[in-house]
């Protein structure tokens, strides 16, 4: 029996047990379960029921898809984003980890029950995946919203590396250990779980026939593994880092500081400004997020654009000392690809790796005045990180800019080279599923090197602009709102 059918059985037992808990919990529950597997109660008992599925640890997304795909028809799986928000409101600020073990489990279970009750959910499947040197373990808990009488538990042990035999091992583990009813006296009485018709037929040497409410696994040709489920678990909606599409609109302040290293001529102008108002738009698209391939689901495209508004620079006249206001514009843009690596389940951290083409310009509405007019273009490999703490998430990013061009400043000097680095640090607050507020500070740092030529005997042969290098720094902060789908 496949993992899908076993999880269906687990959910049916939980739902059947919940219905019988109000009457005699011994004989009545056993009778209902036997009838359930003899007939087709999947629709009758599960109709109108809603469950949440929460998985954390390595390969959490794969395990969640397997569990959700195995949920019988008639059972609604709640959106992960809404349930995770309800958990955060109950004080669960991150993964449960060891809080699902020992004496701490009941406290965690109470939070899960309260979150489920607040969301109108009948029960929650909680799975924790841990990886050892020689094996992987999956702890599965089915927690009823009404109390411990409907709780189920099982632990599966798999090999360190995924194999085609995993489904058989999972089915064997669930079939031999089954689940234990706690709190209702079933376990204490030593009552064993009723056999499914397929298991009973197998013991008698008869051909197993699936019940009307179940589907048998697809028959595969000899030497081939059974076909995968026809559908995968729905992607959690409104969860940052697991999205199909994200759009951020933000406003903020920009600053700049430009200066030369060992400047040797009087025509080298420095520059500084802060704050300048700026508006930015950023987007991410993962077109295969809802596809069947887990590998392509987290590969997408990124783009961004920002522009300053109402910015003017004061240009002093060296002869009179008077200043002239010059319209000034700061712009930046980027576009590329990004891969994200979810860590710790559907609400855990996310590590991102990106490669993009970026441009950053700072221009003046005048020429011939030696102002530091720049226009950088670069390729940018980068790493980013998102660490959630309940509704608040820490955001960080760092990148290297291999400059392809720098604009007018570079053109004034002999043998110019330029490169840059950048960093971002900020936080996001989840307003409600699918919407979050973001406050982020950013910094860009460009370094120039020059090889000026000086002729002391004939100054006319010396370069007009002479300096060993230059440093160009951009910094700012933005506050925005992001829509996540």
Short structural description:
The chain is elongated and about 90 Å long. Helices cover 20% and strands 41% of the residues. The protein has helices at 3-20, 27-38, 41-46, 60-69, 80-89, 104-118, 166-177, 197-203, 294-297, 408-411; strands at residues 49-56, 75-77, 123-131, 135-144, 152-159, 245-261, 271-285, 299-308, 312-316, 323-343, 349-364, 374-389, 392-405, 417-432, 435-449, 469-484.
Helix count from the secondary structure assignment: 10
- Tell me the overall shape: elongated
State Rg: 31 Å
- Unreliable runs: 18-24, 26-47, 173-231
The residue-averaged pLDDT reads 78
Annotated CATH topology of the largest domain: Lipocalin
Task: Compute the number of strand runs.
Answer: 16
Percent range for β-strand residues: 35-45%
- Could you state the CATH homologous superfamily of the largest domain? OMPT-like
Please give a structural write-up.
The structure is a single chain. The chain has 485 residues and is an alpha+beta fold. It has two domains: 3-203, no CATH class; 245-484, Lipocalin (Beta Barrel). Helices cover 20% and strands 41% of the residues. It has helices spanning 3-20, 27-38, 41-46, 60-69, 80-89, 104-118, 166-177, 197-203, 294-297, 408-411; strands spanning 49-56, 75-77, 123-131, 135-144, 152-159, 245-261, 271-285, 299-308, 312-316, 323-343, 349-364, 374-389, 392-405, 417-432, 435-449, 469-484. The strands form two sheets. Strands 6-7-8-10-11-12-13-14-15-16 form a ten-stranded antiparallel beta barrel. A five-stranded mixed beta sheet has the order 2-1-3-4-5. A hairpin with a 2-residue loop joins strand 14 (417-432) and strand 15 (435-449). Helix 1 packs across helix 2 (27-38) and helix 5 packs across helix 6. It is elongated, with a radius of gyration of 31 Å. The model is unreliable at 18-24, 26-47 and 173-231 (pLDDT under 50).
């Amino acid at each position: 029996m496949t993992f899908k059918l076993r999880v269906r059985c687990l959910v049916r037992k939980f739902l059947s047990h919940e219905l019988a808990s109000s009457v005699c919990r011994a004989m009545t529950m056993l009778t209902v379960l036997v009838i359930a597997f003899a007939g087709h109660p999947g629709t009758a008992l599960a109709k109108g029921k809603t469950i949440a599925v929460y998985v954390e640890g390595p390969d959490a997304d794969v395990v969640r898809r397997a569990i959700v795909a195995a949920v019988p028809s008639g059972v609604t799986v709640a959106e992960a984003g809404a349930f995770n928000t309800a958990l955060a409101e109950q004080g669960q600020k991150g993964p449960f980890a060891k809080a699902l073990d020992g004496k701490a489990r009941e406290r965690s279970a109470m939070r899960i029950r309260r979150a489920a009750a607040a969301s109108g959910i009948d029960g929650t499947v909680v799975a924790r995946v841990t990886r050892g040197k020689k094996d992987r373990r999956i702890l599965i808990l089915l927690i009823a919203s009404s109390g411990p009488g409907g709780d189920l538990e099982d632990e599966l042990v798999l090999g360190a590396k995924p194999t085609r035999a995993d489904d058989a091992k999972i089915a064997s583990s669930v079939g031999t250990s089954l689940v234990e009813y706690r709190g209702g006296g079933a376990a204490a009485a030593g009552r064993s779980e009723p056999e499914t018709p397929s298991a009973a037929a197998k013991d008698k040497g008869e051909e197993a026939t699936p019940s009307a409410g179940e589907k048998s696994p697809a028959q595969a040709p000899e030497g081939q593994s059974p076909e995968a489920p026809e559908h995968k678990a729905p992607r959690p909606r409104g969860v940052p880092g697991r999205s199909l599409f994200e759009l951020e609109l933000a406003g903020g302040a920009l600053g700049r500081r430009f200066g030369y290293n060992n400047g040797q001529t009087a025509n080298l102008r420095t520059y500084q400004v802060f704050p300048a108002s700026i508006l930015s738009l950023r987007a991410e698209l993962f077109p295969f997020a809802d596809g069947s391939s887990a590998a392509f689901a987290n590969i997408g495209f990124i783009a961004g654009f920002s522009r300053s508004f109402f910015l003017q620079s004061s240009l002093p006249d060296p002869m009179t000392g008077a200043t002239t206001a010059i319209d000034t514009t700061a712009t930046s843009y980027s576009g590329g690809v990004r891969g994200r690596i979810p860590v710790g389940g559907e609400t855990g951290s996310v590590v991102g790796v990106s490669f993009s083409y970026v441009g950053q310009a700072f221009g003046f509405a005048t020429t011939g005045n030696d102002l530091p007019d720049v226009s950088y273009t670069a390729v940018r490999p980068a790493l980013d990180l998102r660490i959630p703490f309940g509704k608040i998430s820490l955001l960080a990013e760092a990148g290297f800019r291999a400059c392809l061009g720098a604009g007018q400043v570079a053109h004034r000097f002999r043998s110019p080279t330029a490169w840059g680095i950048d960093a971002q640090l900020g936080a996001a607050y989840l307003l409600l599923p699918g919407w979050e507020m973001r406050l982020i500070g950013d910094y860009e740092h460009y370094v120039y090197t020059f090889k000026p030529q000086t002729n002391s005997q004939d100054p006319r042969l010396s370069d007009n602009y002479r300096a060993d290098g230059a440093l160009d720094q951009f910094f700012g902060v933005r506050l925005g709102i992001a829509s996540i789908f």
